User: Fold this.
Amino acid sequence: MSRGEASHAEASQSSFSDSVAKLLDRIDYRRVDSSEAREAIFRLRYQAYMRDGTITANATGMFSDHYDDTDNAFLFGLYVDGELASSIRIHVATRAHPYFPTLEVFPEYLQPQLGAGKVIVDPTRFVADERLSRIHRALPYATLRLCGMCARYFKADELLAAVRAEHQAFYRRIFQHRMVCAPRPYPLLAKPIGLMTIDYQTVAEQVHRRYPFFRSTLFERRMLFERAPVLAGSLPGNPVPANRVSESHDDKQLQDHLAPFVECDSARLAG
Assistant:
């Protein structure tokens, strides 16, 4: 690459990062617990999956499964200017809490990881509003930011991506995910899903350097993922009380920019 080409690439990357940062200024990340908010997300899922031909029609106009109700599940909605724009569900699994959807599909890889005492973060049900995803092309990055924050908060050994074949290049490029299991049938979905994974702790610095908007503060991670007793007590990585917390390098860089929390169609990244 010539010096001019390198300069152009850096400028493009900076412009893209700026566009994501501007979107983050308008986004609220909300951990969803109320019945009304959950139903809105289940309707958003249904619309996205129907649009993509991933599920068949049902009378409720909603899509959910029993994994939405496990103790180790975090259900999030991203709201742009107060309007629900996207959603993702994240399970944090350990030997004590081995309940997560991707284990059901890829037990030969994941069961030994649990048996070895590893912490696994399993993001699924990534969907977005069709209109808002076309307006805000950076929405997939803002949504997936939650996955990295979760992996850092719980000091996860594995950050999974159970995705369709056509989405693998995206995860490989952004997070350096590697394929560990070929696509196979996935419960309730019509299209096969493959399994990718990374140790986020080893790639976080490089990812943050390339995409600064993936950085987060300890305060932000605590607001999103601190939860007690049943889950927090059995997982590593829970922060010490606030009066004993010291800021990391990322925290200091972002302390003045804390958000309340591309070219790809985020509604089609469901998986």
About this structure: Residues 3-24 form the longest helix (22 residues). The mean pLDDT is 83. The two ends are 35 Å apart (CA to CA).
